[in-house]
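Re: Re: token formats

Sure, here are both.
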Amino acid sequence: MPVAALRRATRETVSGLPREFWWLWTSTLVNRLGAFVATFMALYLTLDRGYSATYAGLVAALHGLGGVISSLGAGVMTDRLGRRPTLLVAQASTAVSVALLGFMHHPVAIAAVAFLVGAASNASRPAVQAMVADIVRPEDRVRAFSLNYWAINLGFAVSSMAAGFIAEVSYLSGFLIEAGMTAVCAVVVFVKLPESQPRHTRTEKGGDEVRLGTVLRDRRFMGVVGLSFLVALVFQQGSVGLPVAMGEAGFSPADYGLAIAVNGVLIVALQIPVTRFIERRDTRRILVVSALLVGYGFGLTAFAGSVGVFALTVCVWTLGEMLNAPTQTGLVVRLSPAHGRGRYQGMNTMSWSVAALVAPLMSGFVIDRFGAEWLWGLCAVIGTVAAVGYGALMRHLPAQEPAADGTPAGTKPETTAAKPEGSPV
């Protein structure tokens, strides 16, 4: 009976989504299956090339900075040029820059190309998220975003394991394999995915109604972006603060790897049933609960004294991650007009990119000055602030996203929209 129930639940989770979504999902999975470079970049620079840890950190920061800058640029491209052209440009640029990075030897050249890789690889995210919103019905979007998030984590789990074996053979082969698999994603997009951007109205001057200034003046949305940054800042501690704190406490890298592996295993195993649980539930409550789970999950790390307890704390904040990721992305769609989804998703993506830059600085400063316990306490405080913020901002959440012409949700019938939301152009 449990097996039959699991099969039925899986069938209901994946049914009813358009064919275009599954091609996009396949492209995402293949992309993440080939994401080797980010996994072994530090080892490549320090062990294979002989550079210092400081230089490796600089390259990682430049890689992240490229992602911050491209988030907004790709969001504008997604709205102006379309989802499909932006995806093609981003994936083709990623394939070329990753392959090029494998042949760089001079430290300045490596740093410059790493910046380009960060910019190119991050540029596809606003387009993917906008395309999912375009082709999937509003009532199915949380499920679709959750499935896409599941593909990202499944691909990352496999690629992380494969990266170690590939690095033992040849670091260059890892660069070339990732470039090749990214090129395959571009081919899938080119052959199988039509442009999905809805038709939209223009102003009398011929410009887009939604500009970056429009997004910045949207106070509710920018509040959500700020809360997303806070949650992401805590999430990042799993990869920057946690290994440092465990190392200082006398645990080995293998102990950290064992504890953090729980994150990927839980997401792959539980994301689909968690999606079924949250799909029809109140967005505000889910975001509040997710922020508390993330904050206090890391906060409990202050009391961990064994690998098993560290793994239990990872379970707590991973559950918060599974609740937050698809719900937050779906919320951005609800708060953005159809013809401005690229810019809105780009701004949301940027909050995570900035958090990836700030988190290492924050964790290093707090651990060095005050100790790891203060870092985990700060995480609990940040999670609480984010939960309160979500509760306050989401009190009058629109029932649906604004119409394609920018009219706020609920002010005009759906039948007057320029094009049905579920059908690609």
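Second one below.
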Amino acid sequence: MLYNCPISTCNSSSKNKLVIKDGHYKRSCDSRKIQRFRCKVCGKKFSRATFSFEKYQKKRRVNHRIYRMLCDRSSMRSISRELNINYKTVARKVQYLAEKSRKRQRRFLKKLEKSQVQNMQFDDLITLEHTKMKPLSVSLAVDKKRRFVLGAEVSRIPAFGHLAKKSKKKYGYRENHHERGLNRLMGKIYRTIDRDALIESDEHNTYPKIVAKYFSSQEHKRYKGGRSCVAGQGELKRQHFDPLFTLNHTCAMFRAHINRLIRKSWCSTKRVDMLQAHIDIFICFYNLDYLGGLSPT
């Protein structure tokens, strides 16, 4: 493997033999043997771990366990109790795992551009930010045939229904960021959608404008929403045939495996960015570990 000197002004590397091996050291956090290097030009010493995304981490052994537990109905506090680590450590690991998952998802979408999505479904999943008076919308898009989650974006929305007046009185005016979330989502995934693809959604008023902006040549079908049933956390529908079954089943999977999305739960989201991080981790797990990613062609 090619290694370059970490000093930006130094052009030496192992390719031109100006970076040489300089012994090993045993990393205490995972007991691995790590190669050291030395630059013959500037004298800078560094190791293979210098270029690692996990640089400076002291508890690498728990990374994979936290990743699996976050995708299996465990809250951050229950993870800290189970692994006997500090809650703040779990919070930092969530941010690290989310960034790593986003990188894996970007590479996955890049591969998906070669085998274009022929049928996309998208909709919104409603959850809350600490209280029902501060709702959140999770805009979600899936590949109907292969079940892959193309992306999900969290956005704040104002309270609706009988809680609208109470919410405005207690928390003041709340901006509607739903359209921004949809634009962020479609901006990330529009390259993976085939020009002759079929776009499916329910009859939400905002959807036609968004589809016309990003998918002008594709056909857009809208279906009337059905009543929810008890199964699938209320995401699956009672009707005999559900044209948006793949999407609704994926939403049910989100609610079943992400602790803060479960209905009638003590666990709730306090920060929007942490909910987005948790969802990004689960998307990576769902696409690449649960579904196995793209099969080799």
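The two ends are 27 Å apart (CA to CA). The chain has two domains: 1-52, 65-290.
- S.
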